[in-house]
Structures are given as structure tokens and as C-alpha cells.
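job 3f2a | input accepted
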Amino acid sequence: MYDRLLPVSIYLVDSILSGIYTQGFLKEKYEKKAVLAILETAYFLIQILVFEILDTRFPVGEVTGIILNVCVLLFMQFLLFEKNVQKQFFVAFSFVAGKEIVKYIVSVFSIASNGLINKILGYFIAKELINTLEKTHIWINIFTFIVIILCVFLYTLLLSVFLRLISNKFVKKDYLLQIQENIFLILPCIAALCISVTIKMMI
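job 3f2a | predicted structure (203 res):
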């Protein structure tokens, strides 16, 4: 039951933060609250459909998953926000880059937490504080749930800080950005995504 709770919670966080982040850069075509609700709901459901349902039959690779995330965000932006191609690409790439970076930070935290839990359970079993299989399962579920909550909280905190820093540091111009300016904006995001893929291949 708990094995899919963490990724689904992450999808929910992604959908909420993507809506807030996008509205900080782009102007809505329709009523602000309606656009936010549609964007967040659609992005959440698409992630569930692609990465939880379709992935069981047609596995989505790391690179494909990143490309799909960028494409979905761009598609939703073109539908719901006024056209501003330069900013739309920047928002999509920077958001996906941020969530990929934070995802691996949280993965390390999760692995470390699971290692600590195993040591704690081993200690309890050695001291016979846990002496039945039923008690073992109960405590495993309790610790797993605690780790999931901590991971979701850490993911939300780090991604929120990352996106807020980008929003605060982004200098808005009254003119269309030139090609070289767009390249310098998007290149760090692409580099972060490449690093993410490399780390995934090494694990």
C-alpha cells in the first residue's frame, strides 16, 4: 500500500508548485483561479496516467520521462496562458530541472532513513521488544509512513525554495529576449537534466 504513496504524493506536490510557479511568469488567458485549478489537476492526472498506469505496460525511461514532463508543461502553458514562447520554455525547463535535482536529494535522504530504520528494527528485535512477525510488520509500516511524510515534506521544502529563488532572481524585461539570452537561460536547466540522467544510469 505504501510503495506508491510516495510517488503519488510527489506528483501532487509537483502539480501544485508547477501552477504557482508558472503563474509567476506567465499571464493567464482565462480567470486566474480557474487556470490554476485546471493546470494543477491536469498535470497531476497526466503524471498518474503516464508514470503509474501506462508505465506498468510500457516502461517510461528516465530520458523519456523528462521529455514528457517538459512537453506536458509546455502544452498546458500554450493552452492556458498567453503566448510567450521564451518564458514558456524557460518555465518548463527550469521547473523540470529543479524537480529532478530535488528528487535525487530526497532519494539519498530516503535511502539513509531506510538504513537507520533497519538498524532500529534490528535493535528492537535483538532486545526482544519486537518478538512476533505481526509486530514486525506493524512497526515497519509505522516507520515507512514516517519516512514518506518526511520525504514529501523535504521535497516540498527544497523545491519551493529552488523555485522561489529562480522567481526572485529572474529579471523581467519589457522586450522580447534575444536568442543568446534564451540559450543562457535554458542551458543550465538542460545541464541539470543531463546530470540527473547520468546519476540515474549510474544507480
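job 3f2a | DSSP finds six helices and no strands in the chain.
job 3f2a | closed
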